[in-house]
Write a structure and sequence with these properties.
alpha+beta; oxidoreductase activity, acting on the CH-CH group of donors (chains A, B); two-stranded antiparallel sheet; homodimer; 57% helix; seven-stranded mixed sheet; FAD (chains A, B); oxidoreductase (chains A, B)
Chain lengths: 593, 593
């Protein structure tokens, strides 16, 4: 059976050596000293390893069951959920006014990682609740906040997000769910929503659905969409639960993975709903949550890769097969552990260098979100807005790829469910799809974010890399050669691609859109390259400062060198593809596929 | 529910326009005229579409069941298997002396493709039988051939291959299964074998297990391994079935995919076995079959991609979402079909250009096997020996990747089992693992095949590309620019990588082995590039010759241009990785992963 240990040291390295969180001028960051963050992550890791990880395969095997309209979660989920609530893990960054702990979003992100690694399906119940909390917190009325949020921070009530309908996912303008105004200022909601994660279950007293719907007579398309609170049980004025609302589970989907999470078809039949924010401005509420939600999904990408990697390393050290070609490493055994073989190394180094780079990227993203929100920093806001589709799209593609690679280390055993590696790959697969499929992330990046505010944010990104390189250059020859030069070359490729889009996208937008996916990936590599350069710098500094754990820092440097040498060359390939433009991509008539 | 139509026209194009099979001086090829091959493929395609495809999801959902020691296959499998037998599909290329039809291996390969696309798990029952047939045919005694082969060509008896044990897969020298000689020249076989595909089932009267085992007192390691026939029921002298042999199913594995095929733990307890070929020369018998078996797995890679692609195209034409950015394509509808969007195109073109290129590569490989066997052509034998790990490793990696991409086209529906796209990805996944995991293919390529016969075959490959380019150059400017130039550039990268290995592998073999996986992939791209150049040439010729179906040939040219422009640039990335050598890959101590 797979196991998991939170990589506390790696996480602390990013928080303190790289991001220097305690030294940042962001409200709440002064609390984040090394001891505090270490204690929080240790505790989260303990819960993850001891409680959530053993339930991961239980959830996969049992799945959720719909019986007489009620969803039953797998054995042990309810007890584990109680432990999450009791430990206060469900609202680390929520407003203390509603029972949260008021910590930075970055701390929430770091604490979530072990839960996601250990049991992604389980953790989604609270993850969705957090999203629903944010929607109400940022857009609801005071009364709505008072009514719902105190119960949602504790996960006594959980939340869901209802966007997709059978005929519309990406294109929400096609939405059919209706919201008819009532005399008491409530609405009657009718329609069907699909793919509703955590749509119903037996671990909470109430489920607060956030539902997008159209009020008749409003504008056509996406501009006529409004957001509603639709509780499973109506909340009475005294806060107690009243009658069952007109919302029911039509079906539980059988999925490739995340079996422990109930993916529901939700039927709304004249269900009572309450408008959140302004009429017809539902998408605005969605968009403000999107950076956080997408960063959370990007985290799922590398968090699944992390747990898969840990188990692949264990197997590679354990499995005896063949001999080191340069001479037996374990002559006393029947064969050497397979970790001696270069191609196993190549595979594990790909995983390790991605996962650590993506963790740094994600934490940096969370830091930017804090800076944007808590310091009202418009530059940070613009930058994270640019980077969000990359965190989501690139990291979930690569996270799945790495989970598949980890499975490959197991050979035939990787394909057998009992060994657990298949589940990591199957679970990781969904992250490429939900919260905006990765093609949509690429479209968002190239079609929207690049040109946002006159292209200001992407130029700021390039300036940042340039400044970083010029400020750090010349202090250490090896660092310059192994980290700065590859980063500069990759960044140059990225700039060339952006330039290609500018010069050719005006003539025909397909010249840009045909390269959007490649651009997302090359941007991802540049970001991880930047992260590795910052990590390499921090590790060099620690070594120069005489840190005692030289092996840890040397390992960081070697892992970073690997990423720069073996992953960054991908940018050249992506650039070459991009520069072929729209023609090869769009040449065929639809009928000739 | 997914559907499948055999791409008969594409297959015929390769057989006739590209390979000109009827014009080849290979015994049996003169029969392969356009009408004959067309009729065979049409019929295979019909059986695949109408019978096997509907059973694909049945097999996935029901799986095989072990009850009281007997394996029950999914509903409908037995009837479908009878149809396969009755249609004579199980022995197209087998020796007529034993009931086969004596057709070229290439014809067998082409006819298998639709079965593999439509139902990979089902088709493995006969696929494994074919492998066992070959082992006995090439290495068994006349008596063994007379006893077993006539029932195996008809699949009245099916076959299995027993290599792996719990503690050894790749490193078969560690094998523990014992074969103790008996007075009557038979052996008593004892031990446990795992991952035995089609190990037992209810569709045949007998199962003929081919089992690797060690005769006590023989050489250590791989040199002491012998091959045995171990029938489930002992065959009496009159050919009728006698008593049950000491072989039983210990367990059925729960797997990520190919649920319709019974993957068994087989226990041998003093089972009666008969030596095949010479004592201690069991691996030789295995190796002679390997080219065929690995080509068959490489076919599985692209055949799963093909069926996934067909369904992705159908969905992309059907699903309405968003508008073409250059102007609505279906203004009368609520939205345009998603096939208008460039990133959907990019995804579909990746799939299409890979699948068609891989089909050509596989058929060419089968042609080389025929030439090697039937014409005793040592050059063809050397070339296919070199290319086999690439057909297997590259095509199954890419085949899985493309099945995942096809699943992505479906958005959320791709993750729901009901839609069938998940199964294609899950089934395709195994092909990267079995018949030698892909890392082992890369090792075989770089560690063995490159240097085979003094590097003669890889040099012959480069010469072949060079000759092809110089012979075709200058006739058509567009062809030179779009096909030949990219091919030459990619081939140059591949040569540079081979050169790097030669120059640096002597100092430290890890300099070569650390780049083996990248080399396998870049070699795959060059081979598909070569295939596309040949297909492009054939399409140009057909157009010049006034072929009536211009759209078909124009589509070939456009698809080929896409592969050359958008896939071949990968060789530069692989070369850059390879040239970083062993250092980044091997830098860490095992304890620091």
């Amino acid at each position: 059976m797979p196991s998991y240990t939170a990589p506390v040291k790696d996480m602390q390295f990013i928080l303190h050596d790289v991001l220097d969180v305690a030294g940042q001028d962001i409200p709440g960051y002064d609390e984040l000293d090394r001891d505090f963050t270490g204690a929080v992550i240790e505790e989260a890791g303990k819960l993850a390893s001891e409680v959530l990880m053993p339930l991961n395969s239980v959830g996969d095997q049992q799945g959720c069951v719909l019986e007489n309209g009620v969803v039953r979660t797998p054995d042990g989920f309810k007890e584990a959920f109680e432990m999450m609530k009791e430990g206060g893990w469900t609202a680390l960054d929520c407003d203390p006014e509603y029972g949260g702990q008021g910590l930075p979003y970055l701390m929430h992100t770091a604490a979530q990682e072990p839960f996601v690694s250990a049991n992604m399906a389980f953790n989604m119940y609270q993850g969705l609740t957090h999203g629903a909390y944010s929607a109400i917190y940022f857009h609801g009325s005071d009364e709505q906040k008072q009514t719902y949020l105190p119960k949602m921070t504790t996960c006594e009530w959980t939340g869901t997000m209802n966007l997709t309908e059978p005929h519309c996912g990406t294109d929400l303008g096609l939405m059919r769910t209706k919201a008819v105004p009532q005399d008491d200022s409530s609405y009657k909601i009718s329609g069907q929503k699909i793919f509703i994660s955590a749509g119903d279950h037996d671990m909470a007293e109430n489920v607060i659905h956030l539902v997008l719907a159209k009020i008749p007579g409003g504008p056509d398309g996406i501009k006529g969409v409004s957001l509603f609170i639709v509780p499973k049980f109506i909340v009475k004025e005294d806060g107690s639960l009243g009658e069952r609302n007109g919302v029911s589970v039509g079906k539980l989907e059988e999925k490739m993975g995340i079996h422990g999470n109930a993916t529901c078809v939700m039927n709304y039949d004249d269900a009572t709903g309450y408008l959140v924010g302004e009429m017809h401005k539902g998408m605005r509420a969605m968009f403000t949550m999107m950076n956080e939600a997408r960063l959370g999904v990007g985290l799922q990408g590398y968090a699944q890769a992390e747990v898969a990697y840990q188990n692949a390393v264990a197997y590679a050290n354990d499995r005896l097969q063949g001999r080191d070609v340069t001479g037996a490493k374990a002559p006393e055994k029947s064969a050497d552990p397979i970790i001696v073989h270069p191609d196993i190394r190549r595979n594990l180094m790909d995983q390790k260098s991605f996962t650590e780079g993506a963790r740094a990227f994600t934490y940096w993203g969370a830091y930017l979100i804090d800076r944007a929100h808590k310091n009202s920093d418009a530059d940070a806001d613009g930058l994270i807005s640019l980077l969000t589709p990359i965190i989501k799209g690139f990291q979930t593609d690569k996270g799945f790829e790495m989970a598949v690679n980890a499975q490959q280390v197991y050979g035939g055993h990787g394909y057998i469910e009992e060994w657990g590696m298949s589940q990591f790959a199957r679970d990781a697969r969904i992250a490429m799809i939900y919260e905006g499929a990765n093609g949509i992330q690429a479209l968002d990046l190239v079609g929207r974010k690049l040109a946002q505010d006159g292209g200001k944010h992407v130029m700021a990104f390039f300036d940042m890399i340039k400044t970083f390189a010029s400020e750090t250059k010349g202090q250490d020859e090896a660092f310059d050669r192994d980290f700065l030069e590859p980063l500069k070359a990759a960044s140059k490729d990225l700039q060339a691609a952006a330039m290609y889009f500018m010069q050719n996208g005006m003539k025909n937008p397909n010249n840009a859109l045909a390269g959007s996916y490649d651009f997302m990936h090359m941007f991802g590599h540049v970001c991880l390259g930047y992260m590795w350069a910052r990590m390499g710098l921090a590790a060099s500094k620690a070594l120069k400062d005489g840190a005692s754990d030289t092996e840890f820092y040397e390992t960081k440097l070697a892992t970073g060198r690997y990423y720069m040498a073996r992953q960054l060359p991908a940018t050249k390939m992506h650039l070459a593809r991009i520069e072929t433009g729209a023609e090869p991509v769009m040449a065929l008539e639809a009928a000739n596929f």
